[in-house]
Automatic annotation (TrEMBL):
<dbReference type="GO" id="GO:0005615">
    <property type="term" value="C:extracellular space"/>
</dbReference>
<feature type="region of interest" description="Disordered">
    <location>
        <begin position="271"/>
        <end position="315"/>
    </location>
</feature>
<keyword id="KW-0732">Signal</keyword>
<dbReference type="InterPro" id="IPR029034">
    <property type="entry name" value="Cystine-knot_cytokine"/>
</dbReference>
<dbReference type="InterPro" id="IPR001839">
    <property type="entry name" value="TGF-b_C"/>
</dbReference>
<comment type="similarity">
    <text>Belongs to the TGF-beta family.</text>
</comment>
<dbReference type="InterPro" id="IPR001111">
    <property type="entry name" value="TGF-b_propeptide"/>
</dbReference>
<dbReference type="InterPro" id="IPR017948">
    <property type="entry name" value="TGFb_CS"/>
</dbReference>
<dbReference type="GO" id="GO:0030509">
    <property type="term" value="P:BMP signaling pathway"/>
</dbReference>
<dbReference type="GO" id="GO:0005125">
    <property type="term" value="F:cytokine activity"/>
</dbReference>
<dbReference type="GO" id="GO:0008083">
    <property type="term" value="F:growth factor activity"/>
</dbReference>
<feature type="domain" description="TGF-beta family profile">
    <location>
        <begin position="293"/>
        <end position="416"/>
    </location>
</feature>
<dbReference type="InterPro" id="IPR015615">
    <property type="entry name" value="TGF-beta-rel"/>
</dbReference>
<keyword id="KW-0325">Glycoprotein</keyword>
<dbReference type="Pfam" id="PF00688">
    <property type="entry name" value="TGFb_propeptide"/>
</dbReference>
<feature type="signal peptide">
    <location>
        <begin position="1"/>
        <end position="23"/>
    </location>
</feature>
<protein>
    <submittedName>
        <fullName>Growth differentiation factor 7</fullName>
    </submittedName>
</protein>
Amino acid sequence: MDLRRTAAVSLLFSFCFWDFLEAAVLGSIQDSFTADKQGGSLHLDDKLPRRSNLLSRSQALRNGTVVPHEYMISLYNTLSEIERKGFNASLVRTRNRANTVTSFVDQSKDDPLTETSQRYLFDISSLSETDELVGAELRVLRKSTENLSLALAQAGNLHHINLNSCPGENEWPELLDSRTIDILDMESSKWEVFDVWKILRNHQGKYNATKLLCFDLEIVSDSSKEHSHPRNLGFSRYNQQPQERALLVAFSYSKKKENLFREIRDKIKSSGNLDSLDPPDSGQEIHSKHRRRRRRAISARSTGRGHGKRSKTRCSKKPLHVNFKELGWDDWIIAPLDYEAYHCEGICDFPLRSHLEPTNHAIIQTLMNSMDPESTPPSCCVPSKLSPISILYIDSGNNVVYKQYEDMVVESCGCR
């Protein structure tokens, strides 16, 4: 009975732990940008320990063309910290099983002729139509009311925030989400988050649909039932910083393994720079000589011809540090700037060790090679297990994207 009780308690704890972890992560991300009373900001990476794999705002702004939104920086830092601590980030991935998060920044401006609503416009042309859309949210910053006494005198303290779809040809506005706010309860800025998954999914499914997605935000007084302009209750775009603009966030899941080369190709097409695929040239002959000497040394180690004798290094995992800046990709990859990919190197000779997890074919091939090296080549030392990394980058539409790429880090090597 004690064993059963212990097992039940352990199982209950595991469920509660993962629920708590997921709630903590998503809650932290959702509140990742909450301005303080002094007009500053409290973001998630302030709550996390500063480590080399975390991204600061100053690092993210180095691109010069796109300003990554605070939400995306916090999301990357949060999930990177989870992965660093040994948790599988896919278990707490935002919005169900999403492995890609795409952010779109509001492109509209205040219309002085519009007195009762505020419009938000997003270009979603770069959103994949083949990936499964599993969630979407509109994030709008509501600052504290500047003239609180005037707002209270005109419309009271309770207001209803209604998010509608924009009217179109033969289409009436549709109420997408709503909530009630009390302007007396708010002392600092807050992000209002609206669920817009259904309208984005339906918009994608329409034939010849426009690539622009539009929302109208309206505010209705609970006491007078009259409309107030959103700018009067903290939704103004006046002097708005890039980090304060409304953000449409799409959570999607790709069943196929994403190819990093596809992102490179798309960036080349958008920039028109056909030389981007060429290896980076340092412009210094001495560096070229060092690279050639290093390649010859690696080749000699791999084929066993180094210094006139056969190399006895067995198949194992070796360091391979990848620096995206040296590859010339730092203009579109925000984070990480570098990572340890590792590689497999060494000989697969007979008898093969069990930790190399050789296939039956590799065992036979290695045996044949041991008897007649001239007729049968040795089996190859290759990755037997690979793990993913997450990349924060700028896509061809200049949108900031968080995506998990499989098979990026060698975990173990084997003979095949």
